[in-house]
Amino acid sequence: MIHKKFGPPEVLQLTEVDKPVPQDNEILIRLYASAVTKEEPDFRAAPGFNGLFKPRNPILGEEFSGEIEAVGKDVAQFKPGDQVYGIDSFGAHAEYKCISEDKAVVIKPANISFEDSAALPNGLLTALPFLRDKANIQTGQKVLIYGASGSVGTAAVQLAKYFGAEVIGVCSTANLEMVRSLGADNVIDYTREDFTQNGETYDIIFDTVGKLSFSRCRDSLTQDGIYLTTLPNPAILLSPLRRGKGSGKRSGFLAAGLRSPGDKAKDLAFLTDLVEASAIKAVIDRRYPLEELAEAHRYVKTGRKKGNVVITHT
Fold first, then answer.
1. Residue 51: left if φ>0, alpha if ψ -120 to 50, beta else—which one?
2. What is the pLDDT of residues 137-154, one digit of tens each?
């Protein structure tokens, strides 16, 4: 599926292109599934990250899974027949993709499908560094996940529980049971209750959807608590670790998507172990065939997706 110009979902067209040929350090993957992130419709719609006058990368899609069909002569980590998954900037909404073996690609979990594998990287590779690296999450801490039903939120709930925290999820009425099923100890319906007014305090408040602010959450943090956000305001960007007056309370942001491919690959391998141990799982809202990618974009743009939207390639 390609787009030769920016515009509405209809600019996405199913097209025959030449099959890619792997370079010496690349693997050629026959893709069986990909996923649509919440940012992807914006890349398609208007100039910006993917070019100014026309799309620099006509094939969208970051998360992928599939089977290696061929390898370049210098490839040492993989062989034909290996089933893999990973994340890259573009090119996943296609039958085939070439990627360097040192990018964020690893052997997929043996106990889940290609579709589930494609749904893992985006949310988990965001939630993991936020909780583990920026917040230094500890067993027994009280962690609130705001936007707990989205891609990052569902990953954060499961990871926080894995790290031994008491987890409180915040979401809409329709998603309460789903978030609870992921391991949340308590779930707050934001349409009925404002958690900042309930008198509770939290060691970590993770705003996975960029709808809150440090000032709004400050009184709900413990003395040394941290507020994390995936969409920071300018003040947080200018001061990555901003402390509240007279306390150890602080706010933090992490550009998880800009981490090195090597770091992402290490985290994918860690997550693979968790999936194979049934400690975490993929959360899929809807599945669309590749030729219905435009419809998937329309749905993701509504902002109502629960977990991930997956594209099937067979």
1. left
2. 999 999 999 999 999 999
Nearest to 86 by CA among 265, 311, 258: 265
In whole angstroms, give the CA distance from residue 226 to residue 133. 12
Neighbours of 179 (CB within 10 A): 26
CB 72, CB 236: distance < 8 Å: no
Burial letters 255-293, b for 16+ CB under 10 A, else e: ebeebebeebbebbeebbebbeeeebbbbbbbbbebebb
- At residue 67, the pLDDT reads 98
Mean of the per-residue pLDDT values of the chain? 94
For 139-176, give the DSSP string: TT-EEEEETTTSHHHHHHHHHHHHTT-EEEEEE-GGGH
pLDDT at position 253 = 87
C-alpha–C-alpha distance, residues 67 and 295, integer Å: 26
Note the pLDDT tens digit of each residue in 263-299: 999 999 999 999 999 999 999 999 999 999 999 999 9
* Cross-strand bridge partners of residue 187: 169
Q: How far apart are CA 204 and CA 227, in angstroms?
A: 6
Instruction: Report how far residue 231's alpha carbon sits from residue 152's, in angstroms, rounded to the nearest whole number.
Output: 12
